[in-house]
Amino acid sequence: MFKCTPIKRENGEDWILLAFNDITLWKDKERTEKKNADDIKKILETLPQMTLTVSPKGAITYFNQFSLDYLGMSLAQALSCSWETVILPETLTMVITTWHDAVATEQDFNMEFQIKRQQDGNYRWHLCRASVIRNEEGIITSWVGAAIDIHDQKTKEQVKDEFINIASHELKTPLTTAKAYIDLAQFNMGKTNNENLLFVQKAGESINRLNDLIGELLDVSKIKNGKLDLNISTFDFNEMITSTIEGVQLISPQHIIMRTGDIDEPVTADRERLRQVFLNLLTNAIKYSPSTDKVFVNILKENGEIKVSVTDSGIGIRKENIPKIFTLYYREEGRAVHFQGLGIGLSISQEIIHRHKGRIWVESEVDKGSTFSFTIPI
Ligand code: ADP
Is 216 helix (H, G, I), strand (E, B) or coil? Predict the structure, then answer.
């Protein structure tokens, strides 16, 4: 680079200062980065989804032709248009805030929202992702993003969720009435030692199972609608653990539940929701260990947290499936199918524990068994 600066000296003479800088390396780097950016655009242009690039500071610099066709704009129009013209107004603030957070923290952007299709004016659901591209020195040179149309799949899912929600609510009322009558019949027959008591007890157990199942389906709806509220109180954690174990022991006498550890102070949390998580882990431990007869429960306080672990010596989980185990409706292919279940319990448990700002995880080995643990801060 060549720089030329006029200077006036004190004696009145006019001088010129010439400076030369060797910027070959810098120019080479600039050329490489431009070539990389051009290569990325070439790849993005071939994709049958909306793609774009963004400057390090967050301004959009390029849309592929697929995006322009969807938005019904020229490149110049798309680059200068404001977000409110293409994003569903109700979600606009949330999208902009999440995007600004991603840019400020240099974290990947990952969000589902609706984008307007010019052709028919409909807002269609898209899964939108953007990641940073860094140069050799680790400095961000751009962002690359894609928006994948998931509208059809999302609409089907919404219809299914709505149906499950309505059906569960409709089933809940007659089931509560049936349960009340069964409890009453059981109570009266117990007094007279009626020979049919056993049948009524069996009917009661089935009603309880159905009730739990409907409760779980309703919880899934609550989670999806962000309405799973916690009911916080201060309670005796040991008592909650003991009574849950006693309840499970009654209906599963073939397994012995061995418990170690105590929490020596009251805990402030949602008692019923934590009981639900513990019950789920305990009944799973029993269900998935049909050929053994012991399940271990350990409770302890460490590093300002309560930790609960449930260990079985059952069928275990394949290593590659462990990351999927807390996903809604996930059941281990070819293995869990031999046991009753819908693949809902662990995903609800995870949500409850996360709402308590805790952690939940599993360590497992096939045919050796599993240990599910959760922590909540005290
Ligand atoms: P469900 O038991 O009704 O299928 P969950 O959400 O409780 O639903 O569990 C999801 C899946 O995790 C199960 O289908 C099973 O594959 C696996 N799993 C859960 N607990 C255990 C366990 N203790 N041992 C082995 N596999 C388990």
Answer: helix
Distance CA 317, CA 314 (A): 9
pLDDT in tens, 241-287: 999 999 999 889 999 999 999 998 899 999 999 999 999 999 999 99
- If one residue of 325, 351, 361 were mutated to test the ligand 1 pocket, choosing by the most ligand atoms within 8 A of its CB, it would be 325
Looking at the predicted structure, is the pLDDT value of residue 340 above 90?
A: no
Per-residue model confidence (pLDDT) at position 41:
82
Would you state the pLDDT for residue 1?
Answer: 66
Which residue is it, tokens 């307007």? 116
Helices 151-192, 197-224: inter-axial angle, 10-degree rounding: 150
Residue 124 Cα to ligand 1 midpoint, Å, equals: 35
Q: Kindly report the average pLDDT of the chain as a whole number.
A: 90
Q: What is the reported pTM? A: 0.69
Strand (E) or helix (H) holding 151 = helix 151-192
Query: Partners of 15 in the beta sheet?
Result: 7
**Separation of alpha carbons 298 and 375, rounded Å:** 12
Tell me which residue has its CA closest to atom 7 in ligand 1.
Answer: 345
Question: How far apart (Å, rounded) are the C-alpha atoms in residues 346 and 277?
Answer: 8
List all residues whose CB is within 6 A of at least one atom of ligand 1: 280, 284-285, 288, 312, 314-317, 325, 330-332, 336, 341-347, 370
At a CB cut-off of 8 Å and minimum separation 6, what does 367 contact?
315, 316
Beta bridge pairs of residue 124:
115
Mean pLDDT across the stretch 110-125?
95
Ligand 1: centre distance to CA 284 (Å): 6
Distance CA 112, CA 95 (A): 9
> Distance (Å, rounded) from C-alpha 360 to C-alpha 320?
18
